## 1
Amino acid sequence: MSILSLRNVVKQYHNHRAVDGVSFDIPDGSIFGLLGPNGAGKTSLIRIITTITGADSGEVFFDGEKINANSSQKIGYMPEERGLYKTMKVGEQLLYLAQLRGMTEKEAKDSIRYWLEKFNNTGWWDKKIEELSKGMQQKIQFIATVMHKPKLLILDEPFTGLDPLNTNLIKEEIHAMNSEGTSIVFSTHRMEQVEEICKDIVLINQGKKVIEGKVDEIKETYKDNLYRIEFDGSFPQDLNSSSFTIKSDTDKDVIIQVAPGHDSNELLSALIQKGIRIKSFTEVLPTLNEIFIKQVEN
């Protein structure tokens, strides 16, 4: 089942087609990566999903029905350009934003206090946003995004400007919310960031979908039959053959490519027959960034 489905979505700005016939599904309960370089069309897609703008053509379905003005009440969106009012106090700003999401004053206050306690910052209520550090402001922006318990949480470059400690803190909250049933969309141009977080992705470039699917399956599809071997002693250079090619080597390891029609068992057997003292034998899978570059260059 999908929490969100896009069908042939198009968005045109003057002479620029920001979204060009994009279709994909976000599985319910998933942590989903919306990936692509800057200018790929990710933000335009997000604005359509959150009903900030409308698609010129195509359809978007959210939580079982066609997206509409009420859909935003079930969606939390943290944009890359943070939107806090600098001179407002933390408590009154969060209270205002919560009530815009349809929460009662009591529901809002209870939720805000819960999140401030969770981040060990109950003393922030009467502080102005401009008095907080950038990392603290990021936390307040995160609270503003999640305090109404959205079914779908969209995070656009959520770790920008955060130190490692606060990055891990937000990651922990992402996983905690997901374990409780929240579907999460993680939008970024930093593809290496999502490999440890997302199981499913869509890759966008120049407004078009390039790749869609599960991260593990995508890597399997685009792998180059490369294996890293760590060893003790010396490594024979005569292993190169029509079956195996040494792609790189150091004093401690080599990367070998297995030719089509051959497999890793043949390589391992050949290494053992050569008397090589193997410490580790690992398949080298491509990164999402490497896969994207190959797809764009083709």
Note: The first helix runs from residue 42 to 49.
## 2
Amino acid sequence: MNSQELVRNFMSDVLDGALKSLAGGGDVFENYLEEAQVDRNRLPTNARIEDVIYENVFVMNMGTHARNLLKNKGEMLKLIRKEALPSWLIWQELDRHIRQLPNAEAGNLGDKDIASFGPYLDVLNTDKRIAEMLKQAGRKDQLLLSVYQRVPERRGLKGLIETLRNN
């Protein structure tokens, strides 16, 4: 599939979803929540659009996991909230920071996913931008600080090897 066709199909899906929300009558936002399978009681108090979108992404991911595990998605969503998964919280916070970068690089996106495993690793080798994001976010969040503390002070392969030898 070529990129133009992919974009055209994506935009067609977005338009179809918007038209469904509008055609349903009533509150457009409530229609969107229902279509996106986002339950209001899973959202934080005074939720922003960003919170709704992250919950929607989480719900879609849970659907994928449910299919792979041969489980019921609804039952999984009753048991698991994104706030209970450290990996998800790290990914979400880094995603917010990356969106604010004027010139995010492809490596930043890969490192965002890799950093999600930070709580489960002894050493996390990441580029300087992601390390700086973890450092800044760590000032407000103990989980992100604990991940930042796993990043070697010296960057690159030399820093990683040095840290592994010392541990």
Note: Residues 45-84 form one domain.
## 3
Amino acid sequence: MFVGCKVRPKLVPRLFHRDEWFDQLSPKAFSEAEFETLLRQHADIIRADSIIVPFKKTVYAGPNSARADLAIIPRDYRTWVVVEVEMSHHGLYSHVLPQVRTLRDALYGQDLASYLLSKSPTLDAAKIGDMLRGDPPDVLVLVNKFDEEWDKELRRYGAHLMVFEVFRSKNNRHIFSIDGGPPRVAQNFLSELSFSLLPRCLSVASPAALDFPTGRTVPILIDDQMTYWERFHTATEVYLTPIGSMPISPGSKYALVLLDGGQHEIRPLGTRGSQ
């Protein structure tokens, strides 16, 4: 004799906010394009003090090519981010990681400046040019459902994961549950500095963060002693060079920081191999 049992329906996660219930939407409730539009409408909660623009430009790493979906450009232009919007049902190894690897290793040259400027009238052309002479952007994968394997593999590739889950009320209003996000930078940290192939020159990783122009002599503290430096750039790099002898030693990376009161200082980040 068959004895039936009552099966309890699976409960849909809900959030209660301002006297209203919001039900979690299925990961397949939006197309990728709809999901991306929703993100741009709420850009301020992805990264504060930033401008988020479409970034559909094809970039290349050797024979491989990829297109991200968005670019996050901070208002200080220090460290920008390219964003790959993904859905949790996409293949991690067949689709997501190859895209991430190409975006991580791609060349981001001055040819991208006009493209980025065309996407937002508020961007500063000179700062964009300097930004593109610095380090390549970080890569952020933004997905609509957490997966531990995604998190582990993306970290291994040097990328960042942000989970963005959408909840909707009966009144068609949305709220979001967010975990993770782009890397944060200390407010007084301007740029990493490293010795370059050019003699007596330090390469600047985030040149758009520098608050002094090319050709100006700038006093910079090193070990409580005042030194003097000049900035110059090539088509692809920005450098600092000392007036007089080089006051720091090769073999380490350094940080350019801005102290209270506006004074600049160069501090060691650590010896090579410990980074």
Note: The first helix runs from residue 32 to 41.
## 4
Amino acid sequence: MAEVCETVGIPPILHMGSCVDNSRILLAATEVVKAGGLGDDISDLPVAGSAPEWMSEKAISIGHYFVTAGVYTVFGGRLPVDGSPVFKNHLFKELEGLYGGMWDMAEDHIDHAHRMIAHIDKKRKELGIDKARERVLMDMSDRRDLEAA
């Protein structure tokens, strides 16, 4: 995440507020794609959404908004869709082919985090940004020189 944030010139910490503020995350991801260099779609970015526990139908709909925008999203616990195998297959398998994002589930919080990290690592590898490189810290003067060039 630090390299992605460094690439687009933002701090390596992204706190976007509560679930109702998540549209700002998608706007930030869209700007990263528009800036170029990290894929052609939100689904190309090394990002993952997290819904750590059941809260409400509203939270699930917001998570679904993320998935259909192209974001891999892990839900903690179980989504209440086990009664319909066709719909469950659509959510957990077919959506990725349609939109690039997909749902995943993990009841254990460690597994939840590992799934997100694995997805981010996979996307970093696909973008070719998975290799260690020398990091250069820049002060504001260095940044101004970059913009002037």
Note: The chain has a mean pLDDT of 84.
